[in-house]
Each structure stands twice: as structure tokens, then as C-alpha cells.
Fold this protein.
Amino acid sequence: MHVAILSPIAWRTPPRSYGPWEYVASLLTEGLIEKGIEVTLFATNNSITKANLISVCPRGYEEDSELLPKVWECLHISEIFERGDDFDIIHNHFDFLPLTYMKMTSTPVITTIHGISSPKILPVYKKYNNQSYYVSISNAARIPDLNYIATVYHGIDLDQFTFKSKSKDYLIFFGRIHHDKGAKEAIKIALKVGMKLILAGIIQDKNYFKRNIEPFLDNDLIKYVGVAGPKKRDELLGGAYALLNPINVPEAFGLSVVEAMACGTPVISFNKGSMSEVIVNGKTGFLVNSIEETIKALKKIDNIDRAECRRWVEKKFTVERMVNDYIKVYESILAKDKN
């Protein structure tokens, strides 16, 4: 089996810090190689991989403003489909645009739908509904009008996350600084309970940051530390009393939630999207519906066994499990294709 992985090119694969889709594409690529499967990775030229790397884009366009995203996306996607017949499977992690290139090859295309940024992109997914094989990253993330071959939860590399049996006295918010992720709500919670809050993540909405985050940063309780790379991420998540995840939109998966639990840190999340699939309520954290319920849940965090948080991730969200699940999907597609 020869698998072609199409990674996004906003960031390097794997990303230095932020870049969740590139991160998953990288983990899957390296995991498949460890299983002895031949993989060709289509990603930026500065990507790091044991796979055969094919690239047309020198680096991520989010890292170089001279690169016009649409130009390099078109060149990047066309590169894989012009070579499409060289592979047994094309695995698309690039969202909807590659679907419009599918007629260039007879090779089956599997598309992991990492998220739906807007209902306005759905016409593309609907057009190719019976031509590409769609994989959801949680059951909650499924779109009713689309057909899916499987749900495959993301896996993480547990070696990157150190279990901490004891926490420090701060709360952590780890994610995009944007209304969707609830950074403003996390600050409200921290101020109400009088606990220190560390915010880490890319500023995706500068106006939101200036209006809702910046005014509180002079307060000793609230600290923004920027984008955290793997080492800093491990340190911040592992030391936290709890991860606050007061999301304002349904979460398709939530990598930071799993990463926190891998360190032993419980998660308090608004119960939206996939959160009931990722968190065991009362065992690895708490599912809540408001700021007030979050504050009540914080009083019960000491009842959570941090070792249980780690065990849950070891059971459900490892790279090996994710890789094995995708191999099963590939094999089922190839079996159908032969028939």
C-alpha cells in the first residue's frame, strides 16, 4: 500500500507550535511509516518527515506574508493530483478545495473533515459526497447530509506529554484567542474565583484580543504567554489545576483537551460538540453549561484523579490507535475499489 498524505500549507508539517491539521497529518504520516507502510507526504518544503516529501511551497504562508495563499494552495493541491495514479490512496487533510481536483485521478480519495468553518463551504462537500470517502473526527462533528465511512478520533504522541500527579495553583486556557474558543469567558471565571489564569495560543482575532483580553493583562491574576511550542505546552498543561474550555461553538474534537488530560490535568468544558465524547464527566473533568456551573465545578476538581485522566487518554487517544483506525479505513476502501 502506498499512501499519499496531503497536508495543509499554512504552517510547516509538523508545526513549530500552532497548526492542528498539520500536526495530525504529521502524526499519521510518521505512524504509518512505523507500521511499514509507504507514504509520500505533500507539505511545505521545510517540513520534517521520514516519508518521501514532495513540496512546491517553500514554507507555510502564515510564516511568510510574501506567499499568496491561494496561489500556493492551487500549486500544492494540483501537484498531488497530477501524480495521483502513483498512489493507492490519497488522504486529504486540506479541507474542501482538493475535492474539486478529484477527477484528475482514479485513485480513491479519503477526506478527513477536521472542521466546518462555515455552512457556506458545504456545497463542495455535498457535490462530492458519493465520490470521496469522508471521515469525521467525532460523532458530534458529522453533518447530517454527508455520508461517512468512519469516525476516527485524533491521537496524540504521549511521549510529548509528561504526567504530573500534582498541580500548581493556576488555571490554563490553551487555544486560539478568538470568540469561538471562549478566552473572554475564561478570564471572567478566573476573576470570579480569584485564581491565576495563564492564556496561551495564537491571536486569531486582534480586535477581540484588544477589546476582551488586553485590558485584564495588568491584573496579577491574568497572564498571556503567547504561542506555546511543544516543550512549553507540556510544562503549562501539566502544571495547571484545570484547563478551562468555555467554548462558544460546537467543538469538532479539541486537541488541547486531550493534551491536558494526558498530563493529568482535568478539563472543565462547556458541553458543546464533541466534548461529551472526549471528556468523562466527573472522571476526567466536568461538562458544564455556564460560567456559574464552571465555578461550582472548580470546587470539585480535587475529586478528580489525575492518574485517571492519563489512563483515559492512553485508552482512547493514542497515535497508534489513530493509525490503526486509518489503516482499517484504507483497507476497506481498497477492498471496495477492487470490487
User: Anything to note?
Assistant: The chain is about 35% helix and 15% strand. The mean pLDDT is 95.
